[in-house]
Input
Amino acid sequence: MDRHRLGQRLRGLRAAQGRTVAAVAADAGLSVPYVANLEHGRGNPTLDAVSRIAGALGTRATIRFDADDDLGDDGRTVLPGSLVRLGRSERFRRSVRDMAVQLDEDPVALSGRVLDALAGLAGLTGRELGEGDWLRLLDAVLLVAVHPDGG
Output
């Protein structure tokens, strides 16, 4: 993953949680300018710094050395702007909280996984999704999480 895509990913995860750069930087034990520069695709982060930021965001960083590592151009690793905006919304946070209660999971960590899942589902459509599309997908995921079939 190149620096620009890493920055987009970090910014998307942070924004989805409704957190500021300062809050994430403090939790990671890094300076605000350092984290802000990474979000803008500048700088060369160390593995330790990326790991600390991931921990502050309630997730973990992984490294892959396989041939599929560069297949991120299909949109799965970079959140579209419309999905980032959804992740900032109160409706998204409320839905994630409801899912987290039902699944007995941490809502901060779950929010990143939900965004990844939505981005993956969007990849199936082959087109840019709008707000209404994201909300329908979010509602479907919430329905399945909160009201399992049981059969």
Q: What stands out?
A: The mean pLDDT is 84. The first helix runs from residue 3 to 16.
